[in-house]
Amino acid sequence: MDMLDTPSWRWGLLLIALTMAIHVTAVVTMAFVGVRVRARLESHGLESWNLVAALIFTSVAMVLLLAALHGAECGIWAAAYLWLGAIDLPQDALLFSVDSMTTRGASGLTLQRHWQMMGALEAVDGVLLFGVSTAYMFAVMQIYWSLLAAQVTPIEAGARKLTVPKRETESDGRVH
Known about the structure:
This protein has helices spanning 7-43, 48-84, 90-101, 116-152, and strands at 154-156, 159-160. It is mainly α. β1 and β2 form a beta hairpin. It is elongated, with a radius of gyration of 22 Å. It has one domain (2-154).
């Protein structure tokens, strides 16, 4: 248990909790926005090619937002390294952080000996954060795939559905 009494462990675990809270908050917010986008897509009765374009745009926007989120979380770790004196230069702190969070580990930078466990904990944080992002992207793709699949699924003998059915929507975007 002496190992858990070191500042490196305490700071590492604190930063894992902080960045995970930020990440989950952002992903849940994106999910709420995504539900509204899906409701609007369903209510507009889009043709297949319009739905594909909307899917591509939504996916790219989601990936860019997640990349920015991961970058900000690396920035939080880098700021902690600087503030604690574990790394001297801001650009080195950020490079080390991105390198650790992605578990790449090829930057050649190292933390001072008594802060090295913190770097390892950042790699654990990165695996967890990327796992949450991957699960979210997979869930979103499954939802949009079902919309797209409805476009090409036969509804009666030989006929294909050409548009997403219009549904009645409330002024706030809720579908019923």
